[in-house]
Amino acid sequence: MISKKYIPLYLIGLYPAGLIIGTLISELITVILSFFLIHEVFKHKKTFFLKDPIIYFLFGIWIYLLINLEINSINYDLSFNRSIFFFRNILIILAISYFFNKYYNNVDIVFKLWAITIIITIIDLYVQFFLGQNLLGFSSPWKERLSGFFDQELKVAHLLIGFFLPIFAFFLKKKTKSFHMYLILFLYFVILILTNERANIIRGTLAILIFILFLPFFKRKFKLFISAAIITIFLTILFFVEPIKNRFINEIFSMKVNNSIKNYVIMSNYGPHYLTSIEIFKYNKLLGSGIKTFRIECKKISLKKYYDSNDGRLNQGCSTHPHQYYFEILSELGIIGFLLFVSFFSYLTFRVIYQFFKTKNFVLLAAGSFFIIQLIPLLPTGSFFTSFGSTIFFINIGLIYAFLKMKN
Question: Using an 8 Å Cβ cutoff, are 281 and 288 in contact?
Fold first, then answer.
């Protein structure tokens, strides 16, 4: 029987399932969780979790978004929701921190629920890979990639890399020599690659390597063995599984460009979006064009100067967002917004590294690894301000903040 006092932990534990079912459910979880948090604050007058530069930073960013909305956005209606409700991300962080600290001895509720959801998702993806349809009969819209429970949306790898490592870290601390733990890691890593989401595969691989290499109490030889095994698995699948080989090797080498990183980025699928965002920034350097307005401004930008007339890619610079956090923030929020976010990211990275070497906490390392790999420049991302991506991002920041604030 579920104890009423642990309902907030169950709500946090339901986030991955909520994200799979749909935005409405994950947002509903956040709303209910926020009510529990506000009730706790007024009832017990506890505000220790509010007094930290991380929270001050986030409130400062939120205030800037509101100011930007009122005085600058080229489309108030488009920018309104994402600006006003950025506050939800702060509430997610505060709720996770508060209830993790209050019920620290029972946080296994959260990680068990997350584990159940992610393990079922992994099994479902294997079914889809081998049978062509998942457990619900969904087929991927692109036969070379996996969608799992997301049906026509190709974002399951983002869910996996956002939740797997914190789960693995939580249970690993109790079973550092368990064969089953490393078997699960192997199964997760293989299916992550088989999703064929290039950017998320790269991020997921780097996150695992960071996590393994910095794990405390493990001998160097063991770390090197696990790291070598991960790289070997990746390369084996890369060269011998044809859909993966096509995405990672054939597509890249088919680009007719000079061998330079700049040209590869420009000629990639998302290169036109990056270039467009830079052009938008040039016209709105200080404050940007406003949240969610890339889709409007991109239609005004001509990219002809970047491409040969026979290239056939002249009109591919327009989309709903630039597909990269930094370019999105730069074009929509200008240099002021960019500096605010980069300062916050830098400060939080410093706090994660400092606290990890002080406490050697596994979950802090896992959530920190996810946070850091999400900030790799140039690698494509979803929109920073969408519900799905931001929820996963700020849940991990919530984990980081929870372990930064723990007294024991």
Answer: yes
To which H or E segment does residue 395 belong? Answer: helix 387-405
Kindly report each contact of residues 387-393 with a partner whose C-beta sits within 8 Å and lies 24 or more positions away, as own/partner.
387/23, 387/26, 387/27, 388/19, 388/23, 388/26, 388/155, 388/158, 389/158, 390/89, 391/15, 391/19, 391/26, 391/30, 391/92, 392/19, 392/158, 392/159, 392/162, 392/163, 393/89, 393/162
- Kindly report the pTM of this predicted structure: 0.93
CA-nearest of 364, 329, 350, 403 to 68 is 329
Domain for residue 341, yes or no? Answer: yes
pLDDT (average), residues 59-85: 94
Give, in order, the Cα–Cα distances in Å from 217 to each of 177, 221, 248: 11, 12, 35
241 CB-contact burial (10 Å; exposed 0-12 / middle 13-18 / buried 19+): middle
- Six token digits for residue 78: 């488009």
Q: How many CA atoms, within 13 angstroms, populate the side-chain half-sphere of residue 120?
A: 12
Find the distance separating the first CA and the last CA of the chain, reported in whole Å.
Answer: 29
300 φ/ψ angles, rounded to the nearest 5 degrees:
-90, -10
Whether 34 is in a domain gets the answer: yes
Tell me if residue 136 falls in helix, strand or coil.
Answer: coil
The residue type of 8 is P
Residues 300 and 279: their CA atoms lie apart, in Å, by 10
- Within 10 angstroms of residue 364's Cβ, the number of other Cβ atoms is 25
| pLDDT of 264 strictly over 80 | no
Q: Distance between CA atoms of 392 and 244, rounded to whole angstroms?
A: 26
DSSP state, 377? S
pLDDT mean over 231-252: 86
Domain with 146 in it: 4-252+323-405
User: At a CB cut-off of 8 Å and minimum separation 6, what does 99 contact?
Assistant: 8, 9, 12, 36, 37
Number of domains in the chain: 1
The dihedral through the CA atoms of 279, 282, 283, 289 has a sign that is positive
Mean pLDDT value of segment 327-349: 96
Whether 282 is covered by a domain: the verdict is no
Q: Is residue 36 part of a domain?
A: yes
User: Which one, of 242, 241, 176, 247, lies nearest residue 211 by Cα?
Assistant: 176
Burial 302-321 (b: 16+ CB within 10 A, else e): ebeebbeeeeeeeebbbbeb
